Amino acid sequence: MPELPEIMALEQFLVEHAVGAVVGRVDVAALSVLKTFDPPATALSGRDVTGAAHWGKHLGLNCDGLWLITHLSRGGWLRWIDEPGAAPPKPGKGPLALRVHFFTREGATPAFDLTEAGTKKRLAVWITEEPRSVPSIARLGPDALAISEDRFAELLAGTSQRLKTVLADQTVLAGIGNAYSDEILHAARLSPFATASALSADKVADLYRAMREILTDAITRSVGQDAARLKGEKRSGMRVHARTGLPCPVCGDTVREVAYADKSFQYCPTCQTGGKILADRRMSRLLK
């Protein structure tokens, strides 16, 4: 799933490639992707692209006051095409959900595709004059890179949830998902199952510092990359996430995994849990 660094990189990519162009045809290949119907997708055609923005993991394109906003969910992505085919895509065929064509000042006619891999189709698109009218944007907590350390400490003190849950909860903190929460907790040397409200002031400071360092580093590596290369750039910077069974690059211990029904997270026992192995949820018990 694209998280804050990738979304910010895609935002910058759209600023560089789409701002200044005029929206051409909008092809909806999967009707289920549209979560708003008034105004219709055709209302974007003929509008100047004036900006781009993000709200947590939501990405928005400003078309002269009318926003096209998307949440790419777990399997979604944005793909830029310099020379798209002229024929409209066939609905329901392949991963394509929506295509937006452009006319540039230089006479080019590029487009971008919103695609989604897998069978669970969760990618969403809203067309609205007010981004805050999107329910999932209205529910967002403060941006993970905009929040102050004092406010961050208040949020942690006010919940008895586990750190892994808190960091990835968009209503608490916007922009962090499964991957970067693994990396942040590893950098802070904290267990995913530690209780947020039980952290000492020093541990809260460590976690806040790790959050900013991990996200800032990922943004630095991602912004300026071609959209097609962002997924690989994200994977290349991971120390524990999606590295089950490999050695921790810090201490050499084996990276372990805890799996849920449809996702999993990774951690290093030596760095984060004092050597304790957390039982996999695929088993019937859980060590705390």
Overall pLDDT confidence: 93
Strand proportion: 15-25%
Poorly predicted runs are 284-288
Q: Helix count?
A: 8
Cα separation of the termini = 28 Å
Helix and strand sequence: HEEEEEEEEHHHHHHEEH
Biggest sheet overview: 4 strands, antiparallel
Level of helix content?
A: 25-40%
Q: Could you explain how this protein is built, in words?
A:
With about 290 residues, the chain is of the alpha+beta class. The protein has eight helices and ten strands. A four-stranded antiparallel β-sheet has the order 1-6-7-5, with no helix packed on it. A four-stranded antiparallel β-sheet has the order 2-3-4-8, covered by helices on one side. Strand 6 and strand 7 (about 110-115) form a beta hairpin. Helix 5 crosses helix 6 (about 200-220). The longest helix has 22 residues, at about 200-220.
